């Protein structure tokens, strides 16, 4: 535990140190301290599925059952997104020259409020095949979601943090 605290004196925003300090505090029954460190780690923009679950457990053990349920739901949403993304990615890589898999994966990303991921998928598609009218429409929607335009490079934007995702209701 000392090494995590020392790491935080060097870099107070070091998300991994906050996460592992939270885990150490959980094992010692210091649930409120664990909650603080898990939340700080998440605020750094690191969406780590296990951390959502660990935070949910720490909240439950500290008696904050409603907030615990919220984070458990977020864990389930992230888990479902990862499983769906993985499934659709396998479809893409089984036939990388076909735009259909890329379009379906990009649509899935848009539906789950991950416009940067949709743009990355479509850029990869464009390296394999020509854009389609549908892929262009999806790309435009993604750019609108992140407040961009065709002339801006969407890959330069920071990914959504877990708290931004939670505000959308889809985190």
C-alpha geometry: elongated
Biggest sheet overview: none
Q: Low-confidence parts lasting 5 or more residues at pLDDT below 50?
A: 149-171
Rg of Cα set = 19 Å
Helix content: over 70%
Distance between the termini: 30 Å
Strand content: under 5%
Order of helix and strand elements from N to C terminus:
HHHHHHHHH
Average pLDDT score? 86
SS summary, helix count: 9
Tell me the number of strands: 0
Structural class: mainly alpha
Summary?
The chain is mainly α.
Descriptive notes:
With 171 residues, the protein is mainly alpha-helical. The protein contains nine helices and no strands. It has helices at 2-10, 15-27, 31-43, 49-61, 65-94, 99-111, 115-128, 133-145, 162-168. Helix 7 (115-128) packs antiparallel against helix 8 (133-145). The longest helix has 30 residues, at 65-94. The protein is elongated. Residues 149-171 have low confidence and may be disordered.
């Amino acid at each position: 535990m000392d090494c995590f605290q020392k790491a935080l004196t060097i870099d107070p925003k070091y998300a991994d140190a906050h996460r592992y300090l939270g885990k150490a505090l959980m094992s010692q029954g210091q649930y409120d301290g664990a909650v603080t460190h898990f939340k700080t780690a998440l605020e750094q923009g690191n969406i780590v599925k296990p951390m959502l679950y660990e935070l949910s457990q720490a909240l439950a053990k500290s008696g904050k059952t409603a907030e615990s349920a919220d984070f458990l739901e977020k864990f389930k949403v992230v888990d479902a997104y990862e499983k769906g993304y993985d499934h659709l990615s396998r479809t893409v890589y089984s036939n990388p020259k076909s735009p259909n898999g890329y379009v379906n994966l990009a649509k899935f990303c848009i539906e789950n409020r991950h416009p940067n991921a949709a743009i990355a998928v479509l850029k990869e598609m464009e390296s394999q095949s020509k854009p389609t009218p549908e892929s262009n429409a999806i790309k435009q929607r993604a750019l609108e979601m992140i407040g961009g335009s065709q002339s801006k490079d969407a890959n330069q934007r920071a990914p959504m943090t877990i708290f931004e995702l939670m505000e959308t209701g889809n985190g």
